[in-house]
Each structure stands twice: as C-alpha cells, then as structure tokens.
Amino acid sequence: MSRLRDPRGWLLALSALIVVLDRITKYWVGKHVGIGDVIVVIPRFFAISHVMNPGAAFSMFSYTDHPERTRWLLTGFSLVVALAVFIILMRIGRRLTLTAVSLALVLGGAIGNVWDRIAYGTVVDFLEVHIVRYHWPDFNLADSAIVIGGILLLLDSLRPRHPDHPASQPDSDQHSDAPTPPVS
Fold first, then answer.
1. What's the domain range around 144?
2. Residue 2 located in a structural domain
3. Mean pLDDT over all residues of the chain?
4. Are 133 and 44 in contact, with CB atoms under 8 Å apart?
5. What's the confidence (pLDDT) of residue 57?
6. What residues are labeled active site?
7. How far, in Å, CA of 56 to CA of 70, rounded?
8. From CA 143, how far away is CA 21, in angstroms rounded?
9. pLDDT band at 74 (very low <50, low <70, confident <90, very high)
10. Which of 14, 51, 100, 114 has its CA 20 to 30 A from that of 83?
11. In angstroms, what is the C-alpha Rg of the chain?
12. How far is CA 157 from the centre of its chain?
C-alpha cells in the first residue's frame, strides 16, 4: 500500500466510519423492523431481521445463569480488545499497510458492538443469511467489519515477506545509532 506522511488519522477515520454506519443501520432496524420480525430481501437467502443478542459472536454465552455478569464480562473484554487494537494501530499505523487497515476495521467493529452492550445490554443483530438449509447466525455491520478485518489480517500474515518489503523496513521515524551507509 502507499506511504502517506502519517495515515493514522485516516485509519482512525475508517474506524469512526464503521462505528457511524453501524449506529445508523442499527437505528434504522430499530425504527423499521420489530424485534423478532423479518423483511425478506432475497427469498431463501437474505433477510433483514431484528434480534437482540445478549451473548458474543454466534450467540455464544446468550443463555447463562448470570446474564448481567456475562454482559459486563463481555463488555470488559471488548473494551480491553478495543484498547489493545487501538494501541497496536497507533504503533504500526505510521505506514498504510493491509495490517493497519485490518486493525482499523476490527477497532471500528469492536467499538460498534461495545456501544450496544454499554447502552442497551445487548447487541442488535439484523443481517440474516440462509445457505441452502443452513441459517447463519444473525449478525450486524460491526461483526462484518471485525470478520473482514480478521480475514485480511490472516491473508496478510500468509503473504511472503521480502527484505525490501516496506513492512520489513524500520520506520524512518525511529533513530538508529548505526551509521548511514554512503550513497553511490
């Protein structure tokens, strides 16, 4: 990817865009689709639903004996992950790389879902996909950003690195005590 002077502002803007789009879509669903209702978009494949998910991805931990404790554990975990991703993004985001873009997507998605947990105690899921007879667990835009970011991170980690690859080069902002080789 190209080198900007300092793309961290753009990366944070991408995260903010994910949060804003996530809020807008969840607001729209809340106003136009009743909880438990479904609007079929593509028969037997895709619909807009309105599901309140108190658990984690794929509704894990949704049915526990202590739902409030689960809510706050998931909220705390999400906040820690969002903070860790933010710190890593600020450290590696001096270069516009696939890894940095991936982390920006994950950060935006994490903030979008933790917003719901703090404000409402559950996460609004509304994208419903059916593949043949399989019903994929409902999800939302924030979940999509997290998954896309994770897939891009995985793909980036599988790419071979060459010594002349920008990710292999030290940041120009860092200073070294080693002498600079002469330019011929």
1. 8-34+61-120+140-160
2. no
3. 86
4. no
5. 66
6. 125, 143
7. 9
8. 12
9. confident
10. 51
11. 20
12. 17
Question: Is 67 domain-assigned?
Answer: yes
Q: Could you tell me the pTM of the whole model?
A: 0.81
Residue with tokens 């703090």: 118
Q: Which residues contact 72 (CB under 8 A, 6 or more apart)?
A: none
118-173 pLDDT, tens digit per residue, is 999 899 999 999 998 899 899 999 999 999 999 999 999 998 887 765 555 555 44
pLDDT for 21 beyond 70: yes
Do 78 and 110 meet the contact criterion of CB atoms below 8 Å apart? yes
Specify if 55 maps to a domain.
Answer: no
Helix then strand count (H, E) for the chain reads: 4, 4
Residues 6 or more apart whose CB falls under 8 angstroms from that of 18 comprise 104, 105, 107, 108, 109, 111, 112, 141, 142, 145
